């Protein structure tokens, strides 16, 4: 499948071919000095679809790639505290804008595991597209050991990706996804962080014996709601989420 992009704002001056336009980093004061934020305006010519991306970098050495997927109705700028954390752990983080104003609304009726599947599948295509584009732009970037992180509907997208492309995924982190069953595997390594107010559908989460046997981590947050898991969370909530992720990454 062939892809193309029409506008790129580079992480490193001179890092892309002549003819692409450069711009200054977005909101440079919003992140620690070690983390730069850049915008990519990508266009998938096969699907005739824009795929906006925020990159948390910079690209230095052989960094691994993390793909971050927002919850439904959200934006790729809504999870900067998580993107900065992963950037500090050595990842180049691509936060992808999945929904566009022209997209049809997400399904709200029927068997949601089936009726929402086209939305998740589109998200998987977005992730594959972004991975391929970054692989071309940065040959030293490690795109074969992905970390996937997604909240809610974006978590369902990430889980579907792990089912369909397990060889590409090293780690999977979901924030309170509810519909797509987690893979019952030891690899990729899996962490899911759960809210206090939303339950996953039956069969989505493994039972205690499966968790233990496969090394899947489930962290329950008793003081955090489903809709708290973004930049609007309190500092205490953000610290609890990032502590769970840091412990997972250190394992």
Automatic annotation (TrEMBL):
Alphabetically ordered keywords of this record: Hydrolase
Ranges for domain Serine aminopeptidase S33: 64-173
MF terms (GO), sorted A to Z: hydrolase activity
InterPro entries per UniProt: AB_hydrolase_fold (IPR029058), Hydrolase_4 (IPR022742)
PROSITE patterns, per the entry: PROKAR_LIPOPROTEIN
Signal peptide region: none
Source domain of life: Bacteria
Pfam families (UniProt xref): Hydrolase_4
Protein name per Swiss-Prot or TrEMBL: Alpha/beta hydrolase
Organism: Hymenobacter lucidus
């Amino acid at each position: 499948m062939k892809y193309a992009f029409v506008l790129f704002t580079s992480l490193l001056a001179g890092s892309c071919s002549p003819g692409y336009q450069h711009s200054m980093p977005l909101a440079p004061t919003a992140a620690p000095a070690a983390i730069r934020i850049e915008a990519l305006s990508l266009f998938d010519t096969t699907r005739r679809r824009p795929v906006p991306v925020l990159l948390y970098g910079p690209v230095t050495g052989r960094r691994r790639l993390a793909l971050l997927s927002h919850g439904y109705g959200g934006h790729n700028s809504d999870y900067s505290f998580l993107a900065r954390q992963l950037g500090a752990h050595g990842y180049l983080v691509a936060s992808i804008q999945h929904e566009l104003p022209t997209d049809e609304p997400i399904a709200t009726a029927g068997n949601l595991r089936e009726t929402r599947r086209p939305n998740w599948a589109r998200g998987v295509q977005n992730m594959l597209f972004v991975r391929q584009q970054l692989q071309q732009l940065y040959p030293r970037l490690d795109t074969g050991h992905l970390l996937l992180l997604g909240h809610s509907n974006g978590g369902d997208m990430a889980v579907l990706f792990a089912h369909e492309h397990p060889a590409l995924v090293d780690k999977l982190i979901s924030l309170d996804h509810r519909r797509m069953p987690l893979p019952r595997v030891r690899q990729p390594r899996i962490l899911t962080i759960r809210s206090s107010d939303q339950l996953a559908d039956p069969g989505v989460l493994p039972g205690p014996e499966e968790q233990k046997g496969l090394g899947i981590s489930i962290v329950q947050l008793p003081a955090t709601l489903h809709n708290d898991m973004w930049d609007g969370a309190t500092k205490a909530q953000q610290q609890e989420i990032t502590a769970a992720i840091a412990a997972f990454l250190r394992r």
